[in-house]
Amino acid sequence: MILTVALLLCLGVNSAGPASTSSIDLYDAIEQGVVKAEFTSNGSSSQNSITLNLSNLSDRELNIRLEPGFYLRSDLSNEQDIMVTRSDAFVLHGGERTSQPLYGFCTQSFKATPSAESRFSPGGYAQGEMAKLANYLNASPCDPNLEQKAIWAMQGDIPLAATYSGNRDEDESMRKFLADLKDQNVPDYIVDYGNVLNAPLERTVHQLRGRFSFSLDRPTNVTLVLKRPDGSVLTTYYTDRFMDIGYYTTNFTYSAGLSSGTYTFELSMANGEVLTTAIEV
């Protein structure tokens, strides 16, 4: 009986096979001191904007995971931080070193673009809504301009309507995703800031277009104007016009010359009632 048990134990040990490669998240690996990671700027704040130099300090093979939403904090206070929006993985043998580009975008719209060779420190992972956005961008890659604008819109730096790249399907999907995350309605208008990559945000309006809709439950005379942020009238669409019961839509387009801020549609009715709708530009 003793010999039989010993034989079974030996068979069990032999059948176990070689040890599996360790798998660890990059941030955890840095914190535990099993890797050395250096993050340097490529002189941009979008796409392959960061170079990672990674060294395995251990004597075993490591499978390093990098998840979307990984923050990199600039060592220079006047330059932008970066958030990685693509997952990645690196397998390093004991003592091995590798250099890889990291794909990410600026998270501080009003700071300067990172200068070439400037350094970054790991800042952990995004949480909450920003983490959900990072995962969405990883799973549904889109126009780089749209990715950058989506990050700024999630932070509140630009209005949701400014998540625009010119690709209708991508733009609509992104605005719906962001609106659901932020518990807002999908805007009935778009603001085009043009190419915003690799520069501080200026909010220069290249185009504003959309529609203003309203319904009337009784016949009345109405006046409709669009007011600038300072309260002055930008456009008068109609003055004291008679309108019957119904649902109405007014389309608008402005190509340039608008400053950023809150514009207001003002609908005045004959009985003195005034309805206002604000649009962020």
Notes on the protein architecture:
The protein is an alpha+beta fold and 281 residues long. The chain folds into 2 domains: 174 residues, no CATH class; 74 residues, Immunoglobulin-like (Sandwich). The chain is 21% helix and 40% strand. It is built from 5 helices and 16 strands. The strands form 4 sheets. A 6-stranded antiparallel beta barrel has the order 2-3-8-6-5-9. Helix 3 runs antiparallel to helix 4 and helix 4 runs parallel beside helix 5. It is elongated, with a radius of gyration of 27 Å. 26% of the residues are buried. The N terminus is likely disordered.
Strand and helix layout:
Blueprint: H1 2-14, E1 22-25, H2 26-32, E2 35-41, E3 48-56, E4 62-66, E5 70-74, E6 82-84, E7 88-92, E8 97-106, E9 119-125, H3 128-139, H4 144-155, H5 168-182, E10 189-192, E11 207-216, E12 220-227, E13 233-243, E14 246-254, E15 262-269, E16 274-280
Parallel strand pairs: 1-4
Antiparallel strand pairs: 2-3, 2-9, 3-8, 4-7, 5-6, 5-9, 6-8, 10-11, 11-14, 12-13, 12-15, 15-16
Short description:
This protein has 281 residues and is of the alpha+beta class. It contains five helices and 16 strands. The strands form four sheets. It has a six-stranded antiparallel barrel with strand order 2-3-8-6-5-9. A four-stranded antiparallel β-sheet has the order 13-12-15-16, with no helix packed on it. The protein has a three-stranded mixed β-sheet with strand order 1-4-7.
Mean pLDDT: 92
What coarse outline follows from CA principal-axis ratios?
elongated
How far apart are the termini?
84 Å
Helix content: 10-25%
Uncertain segments of ≥5 residues (pLDDT<50)? 1-20
Please tally the helical runs, counting DSSP H or I stretches of 4 or more residues.
5
Which class best fits the helix and strand makeup? Answer: alpha+beta
**Beta strand count:** 16
How many separate domains make up the residues?
2
Q: Looking across the biggest beta sheet, what order are the strands in?
A: 2-3-8-6-5-9
Order of helices and strands: HEHEEEEEEEEHHHEEEEEEE
Strand content: 35-45%
Q: What is the makeup of the main sheet?
A: 6 strands, antiparallel, barrel
- How large, in whole angstroms, is the Cα Rg? 27 Å
